Description:
By secondary structure, chain A is of the alpha/beta class. In chain A, 34% of the residues lie in helices and 22% in strands. Chain A contains 17 helices and 24 strands. In chain A, the strands form 7 sheets. In chain A, strands 1, 2, 6, 7, 8, 9, 16 and 17 form an 8-stranded mixed beta sheet that branches. In chain A, strands 11-14-13-12 form a 4-stranded antiparallel beta sheet. In chain A, strands 3-5-4 form a 3-stranded antiparallel beta sheet. Chain A is globular. Chain B is α+β, with helices and mostly antiparallel strands. In chain B, the strands form 2 sheets. Chain B has a 5-stranded mixed beta sheet with strand order 2-1-5-3-4, covered by helices on one side. In chain B, strands 6-7 form a two-stranded antiparallel ribbon. Chain B is elongated. In chain B, 49% of the residues are buried. At the A-B interface, helix 3, helix 4 and helix 11 of A face helix 1 of B.
Amino acid sequence: MTQHHQFDAVIVGAGGAGLMAALHASKTANVAVVTKLYPTRSHTGAAQGGIAAALGNMEPDSWEWHAYDTIKGGDYLVDQDAAEFMAKDAIDAVLELEHLGLPFDRTPDGKIEQRRFGGHTANFGEKPVMRACKAADRTGHMILQTLYQNCIKQKVNFFNEYFVTDIIVQDNVCRGIVAINIADSEVHVFHAKAVMIASGGFGKMFKVSSNAHTLTGDPVAAIYRRGLPLEDMEFFQFHPTGIYKLGILLSEAARGEGAIFINDKGERFMEHYMPTLKDLAPRDICSRYIYEEVRAGRGIGGKDYVYMDFRPEVINKHKSGPGGKEVTREHLEKALPDIIEFARVYLGVDPMTQPVPIQPTAHYAMGGIPTDVDGRVLADNNKIVNGLYAAGECACVSVHGANRLGTNSLVDLVVFGRRGGKHMAEFCKSANFPPLPASAANDTIGEFDRIRASKGTERAANIRNDMQNLMTNYVGVFRNGPDMQKAVDGIRELKKRFKNLKVDDTGKIFNTDVLESFELGCLLDLAEVTAAAALNRTETRGGHAREDYDKRDDVNWLKHSMAYRTDGKSDVAVTDCAIRFDKKPVVITKYQPKERTY
Amino acid sequence: MKIKLKIKRFNPEKDSKPWWGEYEVDVEPTDRVLDALHQVKWFQDGTFNLRRSCAHGVCGSDAVRINGQNKLACKVLMQDVVKKDGDTITVEPILGLKVIKDLIVDMEPFFAHYRSVMPFFVNDEPAPADGRERLQSIVDRERYDQGTKCILCAACTTSCPSFWSNEEYVGPASIVQAHRFIFDSRDRAAAARLEVLNRQMGVWRCRTAFNCTNACPREIPITQLIGEVKQALATGEIK
Lengths: 598, 239
């Protein structure tokens, strides 16, 4: 029996973007936040280093420099108007967070403290600048908690542990969502004037990832299956400093405090590659050079990892600390408590006395659901989908282009969550409820019944493992045509195997067996689009590095990619068709693309 | 190493009472207990359920009892709990909250207690005239830092004998969350929160058992923070 609800606005996802949108939208609209977790479990809480805003509390800074850094950091694929909005709004957004109670670290004169971070510079690339507003190395946790606390204060409606399976879009109008109550498997239809998707990333398509198990991109797959495009899916960021083999992230903040990369010979190799910014170069660049060192046989013990060294004496010897100043062990333990603990707990390594083994880890989706600067979802290069919004990692505005700078994600969430939330609220004031198709939940019910009744031989975990291996091996930091083709072909094989699933749990209460199978279906679709998009783009740019096309090609490729399913169908099941690619212009206002050196 | 997992199972649709499931898994010493639990779920018995997300101790989803002690399953390494082939560990749901299925408990009462202490920033004075941040000294910021680390995992509350004996007790986690605001120099609702806690099922139910402090995966000195709230009530001063 399907249950029905009606709200002016429904927000899918309760991370930083979703909660920020909820706080603003619920001031005037009747809002429901629907999340497959409890809100404080959202992955925003794992973000560590800081949130970038040109407050200028420690040294002179300007939003124009922040916008420029973002545009250059994205290898010029960033929509420059969006980057300017983000850099400008960032200041206000961070101050709003403080007014909401966020416990930022403080300077001696009581202002919000800021630290250096990769790719953030003063005066258009002259030197590193302290722009990342921080709360120890758990800034994301503080943001998530603060936003959730204020949602409680404002009595926002939450539907927790509801798994969204479908976004109801018909005739270019969004009408609501379909979700399953995880507690009892009941299907719920939410009728709404406006829907915002803020469901985060989908890094679980890779084997070694910083992402949570629950980051499977279900609503992103849902709108792709409905025939809407996904933008720039080939651009996936590999964060340089994941804990070796585990993928757990060690924040870039460590390098902001002076940590450096060293190879088997004890050399600070980033000095040769990037003379100005060195270890504070953007993430895609660091990840590539780490792999260059590994390929040249200079990985530790000849293996596939290098060290990140943040012992105080090493930082002081290389004068890599902030402003070239000396650092003490005491200071580092205060500034980086959580990541020091990660190294101790998971590696048994004490970063204060030993260097830490690190390797690039799949971390962030620059691409996703295409939107305009107010978070409205695009049906093609120009047309807006009526009443549909997206914000946060799942969206592609595009502010990150081909590579995201550290601390720009937390800004993205808060700025575009707010913009989208406000726009949705205005929209709801004058919009009527669009008619809801009677059959809205049928697809979901059908697909879940199919999975539950599945009597095949394949365990979902094996298919997922195979997918993750394909993606990590063939669509990783360094890519080439034949390998990416193997990935695309391999994933298509896996989709066939997916039809032959073996499911153990046929019950209704907390059936995570069936849910994880559905999640796997979503990941397979997103992995296929990612691999196909990577194959499609014949150049190297930002996080997409090809050995067979190793130069940036602005003549042919200074464009966003848009991926569409080709069969004209619209359903909730795993797709089984080719993918059509189109190109979308990049908005360029001030900065003509130049060679990206640091 | 090949080790044995004894997991407390319960399926409300099939079982009249809980039972012990026994599973053998092959693990590395540096694998997390969560990894071992996943091996059971993914390869042996898909009906086995648990909550988890980040897998590195920041989201608070996977608080469970391992060998009788409340822990986050993703923060305990196998080498912390077993030594050699054939060793066994037991994994059970946390106590004091109703078991829904296997390791999944009803978190609603826990979150209801949390909401009852006004766990949000209150300051209705106008924001600074220049629109900038309210100032806070480093010392003032430090004062309430411990409470900001809380991830609402419930390991503390569900390790507390006072909570086991009476679920009306607001519990250590709620008191920690209240402390974070009471001692934040920018906040203005300390008195209101203290009033909420100044009752039998509020802070006065704490018997200083220290289980909470032992259980906390974030190493928050919970008993001390609860003591500070008691002191604020007893002296009428917030220091």
